[in-house]
Task: inverse folding
């Protein structure tokens, strides 16, 4: 069995990786990229880390694994108003590639993969990733592995350094400690499959997008960032060599980065404008309602907008940053549903059309809007908003509970950069060829890993990546 290492680099877009490899900032990964298949891979919609890493590790889309965001929210409760609880490993409805490999007898080592807390038993070792509470005793399996985690941090804990050099230093320490734990484990015993995710780049690019991500030439890269990229590259090499340098290496990111938002778009105001969301005829003075809503929220039962649900056809449901949903207020699905089941398909179609028109009047708040069935396959599709839409890169979608303009200015120093759908994939060694991947998506990563291990991937949505060099793409 070929041993396989899958390394995840959170936020490493294909554009960034190409520049970083060409500028010799990451010599180990650049060498592997030249030797194997390297190119862009389409992320999930929305391209949020929890959803995308779950797709990377299952080989299926959101419609099957069911993880959409960091929190679980219940549309049927009109709960778009309230934040839901954090997602956990119990929310992932599909087996991970290391579960399947483990069943086939492969020993697996899994470190820092998002949405793996609480750690569930595997054929090997698992240390959970982001969303693991610091100090939790359910962060790894088997529990006896805890003795190797002294001083290990699951994520950036505490205050995040505000300046670039201390942040880079802290992230470099995190990467090095992750590589140390992984390399030591891989040298102690033989593993057939190892997965290690580094989340540091995402934390850096959100805050220092212009400096650390969007540079053009090597001379523009701040020394602290260049040093961090070098540390990260060395961490990848260290883990790879510990697994056995004759193994196959697969590297992917979960999404890329672009400029952060400068405008907030209030989706429910657009729905009101389009006549799809109805507010009670006499809601009373707005200020009074805000006060009452605040009180109710304090008491744990907030219904801030005096929506007339019986007369509301649809309402907005922000998903992540510039990706949003629209829920049709369907009878049988929602507690006070107004749309009859037999009318649902036609109404969904019409809501999409009206929204596109209404958005076009004012500004480009909606780049596209699609029915959920056109984006997702599988039983979890029914838990998603009926319509999904994407706003431009400089927009963040807000609910817009009260009256006001469709857009407002938005500035957040922690969001100088935001996610794009362009992730990357790199696969080298084993039976991999070389070249650029053919139309890769993140669903293809787990099938690639499975096939390198000599396992089937029939239950996955993706297929093993192939390259233009191996399989020329003939257009009809
Ligand atoms: Zn992020």
Result:
């Amino acid at each position: 069995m070929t041993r396989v290492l899958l390394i995840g680099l959170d936020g490493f877009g294909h554009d960034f990786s190409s520049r970083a490899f060409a500028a010799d900032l990451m010599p180990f990964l650049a060498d592997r990229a030249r030797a194997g298949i390297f190119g862009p891979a389409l992320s999930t919609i929305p391209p949020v880390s929890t959803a995308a890493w779950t797709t990377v590790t299952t080989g299926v889309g959101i419609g099957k694994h069911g993880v959409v965001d960091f929190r679980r929210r219940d549309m049927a409760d009109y709960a778009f108003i309230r934040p839901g609880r954090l997602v956990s490993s119990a929310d992932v409805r599909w087996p991970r590639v290391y579960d399947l490999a483990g069943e086939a007898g492969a020993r697996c080592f899994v470190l820092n993969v998002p949405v793996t807390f609480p750690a569930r038993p595997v054929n090997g070792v698992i240390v959970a990733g982001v969303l693991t509470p610091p100090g939790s005793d359910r962060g790894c399996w088997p529990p006896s592995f805890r003795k190797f985690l002294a001083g290990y941090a699951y994520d950036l804990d505490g205050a995040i350094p505000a300046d670039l050099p201390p942040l880079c230093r802290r992230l470099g320490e995190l990467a090095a400690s992750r590589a140390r734990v992984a390399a030591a484990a891989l040298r102690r015993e033989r593993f057939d499959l190892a997965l290690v995710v580094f989340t540091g780049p995402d934390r850096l690019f959100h805050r220092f997008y212009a400096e650390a991500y969007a540079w053009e030439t090597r001379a523009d890269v701040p020394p602290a960032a260049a040093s961090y990229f070098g540390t990260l590259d060395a961490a990848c090499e260290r883990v790879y060599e510990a697994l056995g340098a004759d193994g196959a290496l697969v590297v992917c990111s979960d999404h890329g980065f672009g400029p952060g938002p400068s405008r907030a778009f209030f989706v429910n105001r657009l729905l009101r404008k389009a006549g799809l969301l109805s507010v009670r005829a006499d809601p009373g003075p707005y200020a009074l309602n805000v006060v009452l809503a605040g009180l109710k929220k304090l008491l744990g039962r907030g219904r801030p907008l005096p929506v007339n649900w019986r007369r509301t056809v649809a309402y907005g449901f922000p998903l992540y940053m510039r990706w949003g949903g629209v829920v049709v207020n369907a009878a049988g699905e929602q507690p006070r549903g107004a749309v009859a089941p037999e009318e649902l398909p036609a109404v969904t179609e019409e809501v999409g059309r009206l929204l596109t028109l209404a958005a076009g009047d004012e500004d480009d708040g909606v780049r596209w809007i699609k029915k959920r069935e056109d984006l997702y396959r599988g039983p979890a599709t029914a838990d998603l908003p009926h319509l999904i839409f994407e706003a431009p890169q400089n927009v963040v979608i807000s609910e817009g509970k009260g009256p006001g303009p469709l857009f407002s200015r938005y500035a957040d120093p922690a969001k100088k950069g935001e996610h794009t759908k362009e992730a990357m994939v790199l696969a080298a060694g084993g039976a991999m060829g070389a070249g650029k991947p053919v139309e890769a998506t993140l669903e293809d990563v787990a099938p690639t890993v499975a096939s390198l291990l000599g396992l089937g991937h029939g239950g996955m949505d993706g297929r093993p990546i192939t390259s233009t060099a191996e399989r020329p793409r003939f257009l009809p």
Observations:
- The pocket of zinc ion is lined by residues 11, 49, 202, 206, 419 (CB under 6 Å).
- The first strand starts at residue 4 and ends at 9.
